[in-house]
Amino acid sequence: MEGSRLEKGPAPDAEWAPGKKEYAVMATLAIISLMVALDATILVSVLPALAVDLGGTATDAFWAGTSYLLSCAVCQPFIAALSDIFGRKELLVSSVFLFTLGTILCAPIAKNFPVFFVGRSIQGIGGGGIITMGQVIFADIVPLRQRPKYFSFVLGAWALGSVLGPLIGGLFVEHATWAWCFYLNFPFCAIGLVLIPIYIKLTTSKSSLMSKLSRVDWVGGLFFIGGMTSFLIGISWAGIQFAWKSAQAIAPMVVGIIAVIVSVIWEKHGAQEPFLRPSLFNSVSALATYACALFQGFILFCALYYIPFFFTAIRFKSPTNSGLDIFPVTCFLLPSSIIISLVTTRIGRYRWAIWSGWAITSVGCGLLVLMDTHTRTAIWAVILAVFGIGHGMLLTSVNIGIQAVSHVEDADRAAAMYAFMRTLGMAIGVAIGGTVFQNVMLKKLNKLGLPAAIAHDAEAYVKNLAQMDPDDPQRVATISGYLAGFRGVFWTITGAAIASFVISLIIRRYSMDKLLETKFRLKGARNPLPPSTGAPSHVYDVKRLTVGDGTRAGRA
């Protein structure tokens, strides 16, 4: 069968192993990835207190998280392209600097929401750059077959930060102030700004600044970033600030879609050096893996935002305890991700992990729907553990699947596109989750004859519920409204997980045994690459990859 033939390739390069230089790069990327992941979720437990202190509304609190994810997503592909021109180290340092600047604006400078939003948006651009550059640099220094094993350092840091964020935020808001959620970033920023110039020493092509600026695809970047921003703003407004059918929601989405289409046409027919390579989307398998990455971010962030909120609103847990209650996800997500990384490297296959991951994640999401006010601790802990195992399997397998499907010379951009699609899914997930929660809860409250204002300010109203008598009919009815909203979100991510499982069946088999092809070489590397001529140094064919002596290695 063709699938079996494509899966087979030469044995992995037994001689490749990271040296001190490579390990130093991995450690540096893991440290700053932990910072970005913490920052993305640390405000989950803080939003009500943040809204009160800055004199904002529930909508302002919603945008405190959304503004970060929006700017984080839209700039990632363009930053990856800029790093091809200006250098990996230069873009990574710039990203950490922007993240630091945004952190300073958020705290201690911000005294109102407009300044805070500016800070979060700048943070998002920096965070997006850190995420995508981590992917790109790994694709430069580690061969694909070994990449799952060693990228687990960064994935583990990212997953740990994502899940610990709500707990740390809860501790700060209960025992200190929400500003410490941002002060926490400063040590990481300082470490990054020191370590990156020391260890991230990848060769960069020598040319004048004007020459480099002339190579930048400004037109494509403007249409793409502007279009994605407009689309995500429309998605975020719809059902929260404006009705889905309103012009205020539809117009930015339509304008955004048109702008993105224009950028795609420009990339294919007009750009001299396109920042979106058409070759990244060269097959149905590529499109399927990118869709899996988008749903992966969608589901994870819906869960990370609404599971702690569930424990706060339904079980009246403190922000700290709500963060602790999500620990079963952490305890199983990290080990399952690391195990899949090691097994994938050893056997050179990844589709089984994608399929198993989506099947287990679908079960975990479906079980979330069963949770209510009386669910015993042992039961919801098992439910969260199942969810964590499934998602941990996906963190590695989807990422590697995307790079295996891509051409060898596109591996770095494919890794960056994975990061973009996952982050885009996070932004859409928070927006759609908020819309679903609010509208399902609103519908339930209307049936119960309760005020609609409760749904519009659901986070803040939890304090009122906690002060009511447990047997108060209004409290009981309101909790049922909250429960309906949470179940709406959990059904949504269950549908997304099932759809992703079906989509993943389209992915075909591709070899992981590909030679490392890059123009960016790590100085002092243990296994230095031969000098790059700017063109592939081996012969690659779309249907049959031959390496050196003609050994078939699968699709490039």
From TrEMBL:
Keywords: Membrane, Transmembrane, Transmembrane helix. It is found in: Membrane. GO terms for molecular function: transmembrane transporter activity. It is a multi-pass membrane protein. Residues 25-512 form the Major facilitator superfamily (MFS) profile domain. GO terms for cellular component: plasma membrane. The chain crosses the membrane at residues 23-49, 61-79, 91-110, 122-143, 150-171, 177-200, 221-240, 246-266, 287-306, 326-345, 352-371, 377-402, 414-437, 488-507. The keyword Hydrolase does not apply. This is Major facilitator superfamily domain-containing protein. The lineage of its organism: Eukaryota, Fungi, Dikarya, Ascomycota, Pezizomycotina.
